[in-house]
Specification:
11 helices, single chain, five-stranded mixed β-sheet, 15 strands, transcription, 3 domains, disordered C terminus
Length: about 325
Amino acid sequence: MSTNNTITLMREMAIFAKVVETGSFSETARQLAATPSAISRSVARLEKALGTRLLQRTTRKLRLSESGKQVYEHCLDIMNSAQAVMSVSGNFSGEPLGIVRVSVPKAVGRFVVHPHIPAFLTRYPKVDVSLRLDDRYVDLIDDEVDLAIRITDQPPLGLMGRRLLKIWHMLCATPEYLAEHGIPQHPHDLKTHSCIYLGEEPGDSRWKFSQGSKTVTVNIQGRYAANHTGVRLDAALKHIGISSLPYFTARHALQQGRLVQVLSDWNFKANYTGELWVLYPPTRYLSPKLSVFIEFLAERLRQENIQDKKVAKEPHHYHYELPEAEE
């Protein structure tokens, strides 16, 4: 294929990538202010030029062919490069600029990320931040998010990212509560205490512990369950009982002596644990606004000393797998 033909087809390549991302000719047409038939013709021109079927169409779905998957990956590289070109103005001006859209779980956003946003905005006056606190799974492309901060021990395939810190849980209570009700010495002692737990599923009232090779499961009880760590923190501070909390939520109260860790010689095993990562789509060129945000957040968390010592310095790369597209 000649260079002229390649340049001519770059628009078709961009439209094809957008169709795959949206999963729909009509939605692509809406976003690009075109008609569905014009979008369909553009994809057809690309298929004709390449001599292969890229999309398998039904009345309800669009599905990539095998060759379509390969072509999409290359088209995505082109789009990422184009976005990098558009973002280099930050390099020329010497200042990062634009808006950073970040998705983050609610508790992590409130207690870990949000406290550092004012300082970031002060340091980078031409960068705005849209912080989206949501516990649901967010797709970076479909939800138009630049960065996703997630708790996982296995980052998703097809994303790049940086490890920020370790999330771990503990049990806490106020000195006043423990003075009145006693200090548990073994996980089984929790059976006689008021416990503040997650309460979303039946298994949330079965607390699991480990100590070396020993494992213990205790069926706890209590008058208060709440599916938000901030609420469980407040309940513990009001002497309602012994609460399960991630360390990042409880640490200030622990440092101030308002809370005391319970059963510190046991490892409390909770679902909301793992490594905290900041993730983004694979690209060779990370825009200045994203680079400074990631570096700023990582440095501030390192200074807070709420992460362990082994912090990844370089991005990690994972194989890209394309989800099925739907009309």
